[in-house]
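Q: Got a minute? One more chain.
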Amino acid sequence: MSPDAQIYDIETYQPANCVGQLMYRVRSAQMSALDEALGQDPDLAPLEISAAQYIIISVLAKRGVDSPVRRGCDDADARPARSQRPDHPAPLSG
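A: Always. Here it is, folded:
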């Protein structure tokens, strides 16, 4: 394919039928189905978590992360704010 070749013909282009829109519709349907399944699960329904929350929790669980904050700091090559505080408070200026 040459660099000047067009993927879509401007005369017949239909944004609602392009790949991006179809992928969005599939993802939306998947998230709705997961929300419904979470609401019907006897163990998870009382927690009232959304599909988006469930996905984040499951990714963290698969990584074996014991503390999301610690893992985030490790990923960012940083230390938690608590360990950056001095051992004694700064004197109050009057």
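A: The chain has four helices and no strands.
Q: Perfect, thanks.
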